[in-house]
């Protein structure tokens, strides 16, 4: 990323070494504490990485994938260091088994964002490919780290490209609406749904963004509002149930959202509430754009009906910042995502271009293999 693009220094996750002993670790911005506190965590064990993903300390499909890739590389480096400390050899078979087990551990954290599965599979594939060359295990561990760094770098690049393509759909003076957080905090770059907004704003277009607060975990209020404010993009925070009111008033030009998984027919799983927005947008003839990298496309699933929807704990609904807001013992549903059927989606903006219906054919034409 061009360092001068962002006014703030939003960094979500990165590879680093412990200052004291040079041990490999992952630096991570704890998003669960934003915007009140900006706290950086340093993770040295794969279990900490899995916990950080499960507890939304790092969240958003692309950066979940990058974090998982770093987690696999970290686990490999940790195992090698442990063996070296006791002067015991690490065999290729042991390394492969460990990488496989850690991938499974990470994949159990959140079922909907396909980037998690995509990234861990890519890490395992990388190991299998180089293992055939009978390279020393130490070098294989270093290559895993390089692969994770490559995944992060590709994410940065993809965000730029989505931003450039998407900005073409934004005109000077537009008011746009977004849901959840699909910005820099959800990626290692400038975001997905927010990337076109950043690129359009930097090119001199005057914009206004309506930000859904996004109950129950408030990614809109806590993260998107913070991120846009840091970047000086004019915004108005609204509660989720206000969106229809503003659409009816004719205030919204278009809607930009991210995605956690896109099925082969173009159905999109994204943060709960996206489907309601899409139906409302359709009724008001407002275009709804989904912005996502190819790593979010899952051509193995024919439709959104097969996308696993994460069910999260009831406390996210019954409490706000630890304070109970509902009667004790009340029954609660908490699906973290919903599926928007493809007829409600005006276009899917990827790093390879803007995809329009018919999605089944046009998504297949994108080369989604990496
Ligand atoms: C570029 S992020 C795309 C999606 O991951 C985003 O819209 C979203 O739904 C995030 O959900 P979250 O539960 O915060 O991980």
From TrEMBL:
Family annotation (Pfam families): IF-2B
Residues annotated to bind substrate: 59-61, 110, 219, 270-271
Enzyme Commission number(s) of this protein: 5.3.1.23
GO molecular function annotations of the record: S-methyl-5-thioribose-1-phosphate isomerase activity
Active-site residues from the entry: 260 (proton donor)
Pathway: Amino-acid biosynthesis; L-methionine biosynthesis via salvage pathway; L-methionine from S-methyl-5-thio-alpha-D-ribose 1-phosphate: step 1/6
Top EC class for this record: isomerase
UniProt catalytic activity: 5-(methylsulfanyl)-alpha-D-ribose 1-phosphate = 5-(methylsulfanyl)-D-ribulose 1-phosphate
Keyword vocabulary terms for this entry: Amino-acid biosynthesis, Isomerase, Methionine biosynthesis
Site (Transition state stabilizer): 180
GO annotation terms (biological process): L-methionine salvage from methylthioadenosine
Gene3D superfamilies for the chain: translation initiation factor eif-2b, domain 1, Translation initiation factor eif-2b, domain 2
HAMAP family: Salvage_MtnA
Job description of the protein: Catalyzes the interconversion of methylthioribose-1-phosphate (MTR-1-P) into methylthioribulose-1-phosphate (MTRu-1-P).
Family affiliation: Belongs to the EIF-2B alpha/beta/delta subunits family. MtnA subfamily.
NCBIfam families: eIF-2B_rel (TIGR00524), PRK05720.1 (NF004326), salvage_mtnA (TIGR00512)
Name recorded for this polypeptide: Methylthioribose-1-phosphate isomerase
Gene source species: Dictyobacter aurantiacus
Gene designation: mtnA
């Amino acid at each position: 990323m061009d360092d001068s693009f962002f006014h703030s220094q939003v960094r979500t996750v990165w590879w680093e070494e412990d200052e004291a002993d040079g041990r490999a670790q992952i630096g991570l911005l704890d998003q669960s504490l934003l915007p009140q506190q900006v706290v950086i965590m340093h993770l040295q064990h794969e279990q900490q990485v899995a916990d950080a993903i499960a507890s939304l300390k790092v969240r958003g499909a692309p950066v979940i994938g990058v974090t998982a890739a770093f987690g696999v590389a970290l686990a490999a480096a940790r195992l090698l260091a442990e063996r070296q400390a006791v002067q015991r050899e690490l065999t290729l078979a042991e390394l492969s088994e460990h990488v496989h087990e850690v991938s499974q551990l990470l994949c159990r954290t959140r079922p909907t964002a396909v980037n998690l599965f995509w990234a861990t599979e890519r890490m395992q594939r990388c190991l299998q490919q180089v293992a055939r060359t009978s390279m020393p295990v130490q070098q294989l561990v270093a290559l895993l780290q390089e692969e994770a760094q490559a995944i992060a770098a590709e994410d940065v690049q993809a965000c730029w490209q989505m931003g450039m393509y998407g900005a073409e759909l934004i005109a000077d003076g537009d008011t746009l609406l977004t849901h959840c957080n699909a910005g820099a905090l959800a990626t290692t770059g400038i975001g997905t749904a927010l990337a076109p907004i950043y690129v359009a704003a930097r090119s001199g277009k005057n914009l206004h963004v309506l930000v859904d607060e996004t109950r129950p975990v408030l990614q809109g209020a806590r993260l998107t509002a913070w991120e846009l404010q840091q970047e000086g993009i004019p915004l108005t925070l609204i509660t989720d149930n206000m969106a229809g009111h503003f659409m009816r008033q004719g205030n919204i030009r278009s809607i930009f959202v991210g995605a956690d998984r896109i099925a082969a027919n173009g159905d999109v799983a994204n943060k709960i509430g996206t489907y309601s927005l899409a139906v409302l947008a359709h009724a008001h003839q407002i275009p709804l754009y989904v912005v996502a990298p190819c790593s979010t496309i899952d051509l193995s699933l024919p439709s959104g009906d097969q996308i696993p929807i994460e069910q999260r704990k009831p406390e996210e609904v019954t409490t706000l910042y630890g304070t109970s807001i509902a009667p004790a013992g009340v029954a609660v549903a908490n699906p973290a995502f919903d599926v928007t059927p493809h007829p409600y989606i005006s276009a899917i903006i990827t790093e390879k271009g803007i995809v329009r219906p018919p999605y089944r054919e046009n998504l297949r034409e994108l080369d989604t293999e990496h």
